[in-house]
Structures are given as structure tokens and as C-alpha cells.
Design a protein that fits this description.
Two copies of one chain form a homodimer. By secondary structure, chain A is of the alpha/beta class. Helix content of chain A is about 45%, strand content about 15%. The first copy, chain A, has twelve helices and seven strands. In chain A, strands 3-4-2-5-1-6-7 form a seven-stranded mixed beta sheet, sandwiched between helices. In chain A, a hairpin with a 2-residue loop joins strand 3 and strand 4. In chain A, helix 1 crosses helix 12 and helix 6 packs across helix 7. Chains A and B meet through helix 5, helix 8 and helix 10 of A and helix 5, helix 8 and helix 10 of B. Bound molecules: adenosine-5'-triphosphate (ATP) (2 copies) and magnesium ion (MG) (2 copies). One magnesium ion (MG) binds next to helix 1 of chain B.
Chain lengths: ~260, ~260
């Protein structure tokens, strides 16, 4: 089973857009996927147009709003064929506070220890990370074995990437299997020189890890308001085509 | 003294761009401004093209890398005329962990209690908030008395705003003076229908609090790579004109 964390401390670079479209695309190819939303904003369920009663908070604590017992299975919501969701949201604030009070070794590895699916029941776990850096971010990098890093081709994004690498390196000390597998340029805007400049620098630094860029495509930012992935909203938009390419690359890497 | 938090949990909506250009614009009008970077990414110093040795971490703990004593004055960096900076960065991760272990009342109000300038030495404190929601976000909303909320006119931003209001309301219980003063539409792109739709909805919900939108302007995303604010990089760009309007509105509100 592949466990891919879609992570980048910088905000608004396309983490949720990538995690949702990647998870749905893989599910449409027949892979069984668990999508985990680790953000207190809890946007993944909105992007998928679903309103699960429970999510990651209940999955870990096995407790509902009124203290009643919730089984792990009840906390998982089937959102599409082959696609299951552990939704995020404001209750994760409580989880973060609670984690902060645990002893150091529990604090960093709890999520990975709880997320152990029955052997052979899943092909992929995809984690949508929150912006910033906190105790949940560390937990995800302990639970995952691959990192996919979206980098917006605008503004001081390379600077943000350098900061993120320091976080990644501290996580690799604790989880030696963790690999930065993919750097995904996003919001590629052919009209601006800056886009080409940043893309060229990324290609110089990363070589093989660089993916084909996701173009700036307003359909990608319209789809969430309809509760649909890009494949459901505009199957032939540039955004759908770009994410198709990424999914094919990820599937092929898995076959070797 | 006015204490304005530039805050929004959603990432990449223009918080840092707004905080930096607002702070510099006010300073150019002769107001004395302290800009506080509360983000572990520590991008404010990059946007201003400065490399301070110390920042917010040292200001609060009064301790340097090797445990030596650092006075509060040493932690403050003068970045422009009338503009002082308390920079952020990766050391704030330690501060967050340390805050998490303090008793509840200290945990939430520490920043406000530490940031008490000599009477009459400052006109504005501007806080650049990190994305997401954590113990530092609570501290800022305890220290501030006004909130300016940038909302990107793309994607599911209204949903993000609703989530943020729940955080704001829980902070107002502890700090009754706190007011949502400004909602600033950002990245207004005349080419897309979505921009107009979201703007219309914001105007319906917020009435007087709504500011004139900041247009999508590539100059705003180029300026940080040069370590300059928009007023230094392209004085007559649309972005500079839009932030001028915001600054004039904020100054006029202060005079009443
Ligand atoms: N390629 C693209 N073209 C146009 N808009 C995009 C693209 N990718 C993402 N967006 C839009 O940009 C905004 C930010 O994207 P998204 O929410 O996925 O980023 P994020 O990194 O998950 O943000 P956060 O840091 O808040 O979690 C959203 O409004 C989204 O709809
Ligand atoms: N009006 C605008 N037009 C074009 N680009 C913009 C505009 N405002 C901000 N940007 C660019 O968009 C990106 C996000 O802006 P910024 O970093 O200020 O957002 P933020 O909310 O502070 O992000 P974070 O959540 O990571 O702290 C940056 O690359 C910035 O240069
Ligand atoms: Mg997201
Ligand atoms: Mg910022």
C-alpha cells in the first residue's frame, strides 16, 4: 500500500485540489483509496460535496459529540466508488491540543499507529495536509512513505519550499522510509514570465521528481462549489487533463 | 494605538501581502508601525528583503540560540523608516510547543501581555497570521482589537470564511473588544465570472465592512522576490493603487 502525503507549509498552493482529484482519479482506475483530511478547515468533504457525520477526530478518539462510543468503521465515509474519506474539521483543534499533552513518542506517531487497515483492503492512503506546521503535520509524515509537494508558480514559493525541506528533513530522521517523491508545479500561468522562471528553477533543483505542471485553470477553482471533482465537473478541461497525466505517472511508478 | 490582526485560516489568500504593504504604507504616511510575523514560515522578512538575527521567539523568551540573554529591544528590527519588525520563522515551532504546555490562561494571553510598548511610542501594531488555527492564532486575537480578513475571490473561499468565523466568535468570548473591522476581497480577476459572484455575495453579507477589492496583479507576486513592497517595486501598478485605497480608508477610520 502506498501512503502519499500531499504537503506544503505554504498556504493556498493547491494541496486540497491535488489530494481530492488524485484520490478520485485513482479510485476511477479501480484502486481502493482512503483519503484523510488533516486540516482543521475540513475542506475535503466540501470539495467532494458530502457531509459525513464523523471523521478523523472520531476515528482516533472513538468518541462522538456526546461522549458516546464510535467505532472506527463508523468514522469512515464512503464518498465515491473505491474512495473512502476520513474528514477533517474544527474538532481536529481538540485533537491537536490533546496530542500536545501526550508524551513525545506517542505525540508524533499516533496517527500512523491508528491507521492500520486490514491487509489487502486498500491500495492507497492519500493525506491532505493543512498549511503551516504543527503536531498533526509531524504525525502525517510519520504515517506516510511518500511526499507530493505542490508548489505554486507564483510569488516567493521557492523560499517556502526551502523552509518546508527543513521540516521534511527533521521528519526523515524519525521515519527513514519517507521520500520526497513528487514536486508538482501548480497554477502555471503561461501569461506571466514569473511562472516560466520558477518552473525552470524547479527543474534545475529537482530533475526526475518534477511532474508536468498543472496549469492555472479556473474550472479547478469552480468545481469545489459544486461538490464535484474536476473529472465530474468538466471532464475535458485543461485541469482534468493535467491531473490525468499526474495520475498515470503515479500509477506507472507503482507498477515497477 | 490600533492593533490589527490580518487573519484568515485559509491559506494563500494574501495575508502576508496585505500585512506588509499595509504596514509599509502606514509608515510612509508617518505613522509608527510594529509589524509582527506570527508564522513559522517567517515570510515577512523575505517580503521586506531583510535578515534580522532575532525576532518574535527571542522577544518572548528573551533567549538566543545558545541560551544567552537577549533583550526585547535587540529582538526588534527596524526595517524601514517608521516601520519595526518582529520576524517569525521556524523557532516559533518551539514557542508553540512551549505554549501548549502552559496553564490555559497563560497559554492564550502571553503574546498580548508581552507586547506592551512604551506609551505613545507606536501608532499601529499589525499582526501577520499563519494559515490554519493554533495556539499562536488565539494569542494574536487576544492581543489585537481589530481583525482584517483577506478573502480570495476564487474557489470555496466563502466556506473558509464561515469556518473562520467560528474561531473568531470563540476568541471574542475571551476578548470582548475584538471586532471584525475589514473584509478585504483579494485576487479580483475581472476575466472570471466567479470573482464577480463571490464579490457580490460578500457585499450582501458584510455591507460596510467590505473594502474595495485588491485586483489580481502579477506585480504583487513579483515584488517579494526583490525584497520590496509594492510601493518600492512598482509605485504605479494596480496593486499599489488598490493598497493605497485600503490605507486611506484605514487612516480615515482612525481619525473619527
Ligand atoms: N491549477 C489551478 N488553477 C486555478 N485555481 C486553482 C488551481 N489549483 C487550485 N486552485 C484554487 O486555488 C485556491 C487554493 O487551492 P487549494 O485550496 O487546493 O490550496 P491548499 O494548498 O489546499 O490551501 P490551504 O493551504 O488553505 O490548505 C482554491 O481556491 C482553488 O480552487
Ligand atoms: N492581488 C494579488 N494578485 C496577484 N498575486 C497575489 C495577490 N496577492 C497575493 N498574491 C500572491 O499570492 C500568493 C499568496 O499570497 P500571500 O503569501 O500573501 O498569502 P498568505 O495568505 O499570506 O499565504 P499563507 O496562508 O501561506 O500565509 C503569493 O505568491 C503572493 O505573491
Ligand atoms: Mg487545503
Ligand atoms: Mg502568509
Amino acid at each position: 500500500m502506498r501512503k502519499i502525503a500531499v504537503a506544503m507549509a505554504k498556504g493556498g498552493v493547491g494541496k486540497t485540489t491535488t489530494a481530492v482529484n488524485l484520490a478520485h482519479g485513482l479510485a476511477s482506475h479501480g484502486y481502493r483509496v482512503l483519503l484523510v483530511d488533516c486540516d482543521t478547515q475540513g475542506q475535503v468533504s466540501k470539495f467532494l460535496g458530502v457531509k459525513p457525520r464523523f471523521g478523523l477526530y472520531e476515528f482516533i478518539t472513538e468518541r462522538g459529540d456526546n461522549g458516546e462510543h464510535i467505532s472506527k468503521n463508523e468514522a469512515i465515509h464512503q464518498s465515491r466508488q473505491n474512495l473512502w474519506l476520513l474528514s477533517g474539521g474544527i474538532r481536529l483543534v481538540e485533537l491537536k491540543n490533546w496530542l500536545g499533552e501526550q508524551p513525545r513518542d506517542v505525540r508524533q506517531t499516533l496517527l500512523g499507529n491508528e491507521l492500520v487497515p486490514k491487509k489487502g483492503s486498500l491500495d492507497y492512503q492519500i493525506f491532505d495536509c493543512a498549511p503551516g506546521w504543527d503536531v498533526l503535520s509531524v504525525n502525517i509524515l510519520m504515517a506516510a512513505n511518500e511526499v507530493l509537494c505542490p508548489v505554486a508558480l507564483q510569488g516567493p514559493s521557492l523560499e517556502g519550499l526551502k523552509t518546508f525541506f527543513r521540516y521534511l528533513q527533521s521528519a526523515q530522521k524519525l521515519n527513514p522510509d519517507l521520500r520526497l517523491k513528487y514536486v508538482l508545479p501548480t497554477m502555471f500561468d503561461r501569461r506571466t514570465r514569473q511562472s516560466y522562471e520558477i518552473l525552470r528553477q524547479l527543474q534545475k533543483y529537482f530533475g526526475r521528481q518534477i511532474c508536468d505542471p498543472i496549469h492555472f485553470n479556473v474550472r479547478l477553482s469552480e468545481a469545489p462549489a459544486h461538490g464535484q471533482t474536476i473529472f465530474e465537473y468538466r471532464r475535458h478541461a485543461t485541469g482534468a487533463h493535467d491531473y490525468d497525466k499526474l495520475i498515470r505517472r503515479i500509477i506507472n511508478d507503482g507498477i515497477q
